[in-house]
Write a structure and sequence with these properties.
Elements lengths: L4 E2 L10 H23 L2 H7 L5 H22 L2 E14 L1 E7 L13 H15 L4 E7 L3 E8 L2 H9 L13 H11 L8 E7 L8 H10 L2 E8 L5 E2 L1 E3 L5 E3 L9 E2 L3 H11 L3 E5 L5 H12 L3 E13 L1 H14 L11
Parallel strand pairs: 3-4, 3-6, 6-7, 7-12
Antiparallel strand pairs: 1-2, 2-13, 4-5, 8-11, 9-10
Helix pairs in contact: 1-3, 3-10, 4-9, 6-7, 7-8
């Protein structure tokens, strides 16, 4: 047993059962002897119960104690020797498209639409198991911030730095973001790819529905998440003095933004995805991923890796434990008489 180790040492506490059982057997033997002495004088016992064998009773107790000890060892998962196992990573490819235009500063969602979207994306990472994820930020243009990766820590670090200004060009180019996401997928294999579009849905003439149709032709589903109220909301900014002001047009009128639910619904429908009109309400993106995305997009083998594992040998100890415990009832406590 070179290299013996245990996979779950916490079960070593089960060995406390052994002294408890031993004390129980000692007490049981003492009670039995005491009862016999009450029944008859000690010199008569050998004649009244001549076939009783204390030694065999000790053997039975020993079998129970050994069986219990072996079961405790079994629960500790004894291991020795190693073997290599090929593991396949199965999952889907997900490109997250995050709107970083100034309209995402609207505070109809607390603290604002952009910060709420970033929090939802972090929650999404908790639901992913074996999926690759990438990030594209868009405003008046689209920019790939994170290519498809299994490294969720790297993804988090990039997401933390995203803000208004990550993409310098103003506007909201949803169609361009979708086209860039389609290009980001690295092969032509269909039906294991998804785009999650998080935006308030105000597009500036980039034909997002046409882009969605192209994505559908490649077997890519788009799942849209609409943030913000459908009623117009002003866009707050901080001026040079640090005071809060609002974005205005050339005439000095406050620019207001609203979530375009109908367009987002059409984008999702065109690709076989789904639209979730979050609006200003609470949103469980982990549940949305499980029920809508993971259920709709088939997985495929994305990566293979070889891992070295210790070999579990608990079966040997389990077999011995069962043998001891099964033999115990067949050990007679009385000697055969001639």
């Amino acid at each position: 047993m070179t290299g013996l180790r245990f996979g779950d040492l916490a079960w070593a506490h089960a060995f406390w059962l052994l002294p408890a059982l031993a004390l129980l057997f000692v007490f049981s033997f003492w009670r039995k002897r005491r009862a016999l002495r009450v029944f008859a004088a000690s010199e008569l016992l050998s004649h009244l119960v001549p076939t009783a064998s204390p030694g065999r009773q000790y053997v039975r107790a020993g079998l129970v104690l050994c069986g219990t000890a072996l079961l405790a060892i079994c629960l500790m998962r004894p291991q020795w020797g190693r073997q290599e196992i090929d593991l396949a990573e199965r999952g889907i490819d997900i490109m997250v498209l995050l709107d970083v235009s100034r309209s995402m500063l609207a505070q109809d969602v607390v603290p604002n639409r952009l910060e709420r979207a970033k929090t939802d994306i972090l929650d999404l990472l908790n639901a992913l198991q074996g999926d690759r994820i990438g990030l594209i930020a868009f405003a008046g243009a689209a920019q790939t911030l994170c290519p498809l990766t299994f490294d969720y820590g790297f993804f988090r670090s990039l997401l933390a730095d995203v803000g208004i200004g990550t993409v310098a060009l103003g506007g909201t180019a949803i169609g361009d973001a979708i086209r860039k996401a389609v290009e980001a997928f690295q092969d032509e294999v269909r039906n294991y790819k998804a785009i999650i579009l998080i935006t308030d849905g105000e597009d500036h003439d980039t034909f997002p529905e046409k882009a969605a149709e192209k994505a559908a032709e490649k077997g890519i589903r788009i799942f849209t998440v609409g943030l913000g109220a459908e009623a117009p909301s002003p866009i707050p900014i901080t001026d040079e003095s640090g005071k809060t002001a609002f974005v205005t047009d050339e005439d000095g009128n406050a620019v207001k933004t609203r979530m375009d639910a109908s367009m987002l619904a059409r984008i999702a429908t065109a690709t076989g995805g789904s639209f979730f009109p979050v609006g200003t309400s609470a949103f469980d993106i982990e549940e949305y991923y499980a029920k809508k995305i993971a259920a709709a997009v088939p997985e495929r083998e994305l990566a293979e890796k070889r891992e070295e594992h210790y070999v579990d040998r608990y079966q040997i100890f389990l077999a011995l434990a069962l043998a001891f415990l099964l033999i115990e009832p067949f050990v007679r406590t009385r000697r055969k008489t001639a």
